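ok trying again, last paste got cut off:
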Amino acid sequence: MRLSITTVEAFRLWRDTGDWMDLADLEATIKKASVPTEKMLRGIAFHSVLERPVSETPFAEKQYRMSASDGTADFIFAGEGIDRVLQIWPKLPAPEVKSTFDVDGITVVGVADALEGVTVWEAKCTEKIDVENYFDSFQWRALLKLYDATVAKYVLAQGRDCGGRFIAIDNVLPMTLYRYPKLDEDVRRLVGDCAQFVCQRNLESYVLDKDAA
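nice, full thing came through this time. structure:
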């Protein structure tokens, strides 16, 4: 069985929060049948700004225009916050490389947004910054294990859609998290619980080792 970090985090959200993920969306994630939502498209475009920040200045402030991954209308990111994000983001991170680790015969696969020494970086663009949700996340724990890293740094950007996919970044919150003694144990437990759920729902055929992303 091969599980992505995204899948395990989706399972955690469904099991532990009750409102961030419903069962149908979780199963669609496992089956790789999820239809990109506006939130997902915005997140992909936001990451493109970090990878190739080319600004345009039609008015008084810089704006960053990025194509939507599904070929629909472009996203535009603007406001003082977007420049703050770029100031915080590492200038020369290691290239994104998908990696895996093994948990009791289960392959877990994932990739960090950026890797700098023993630090993994993740950037999020969200309508509301929920610090507790990111603190509870499986993602940063799994990434620290994945890269044998010790520090995880989130750059959380609060984006307000002003209409027409014009996203004003109003607030930016850096968040630093550290490896702790029982991290590997927590990762192992959640991966096992997710794998058990997959088997209970007869979804094993969607997470075969050779097929999973």
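cool. The mean pLDDT is 89. The longest strand covers residues 166-178.
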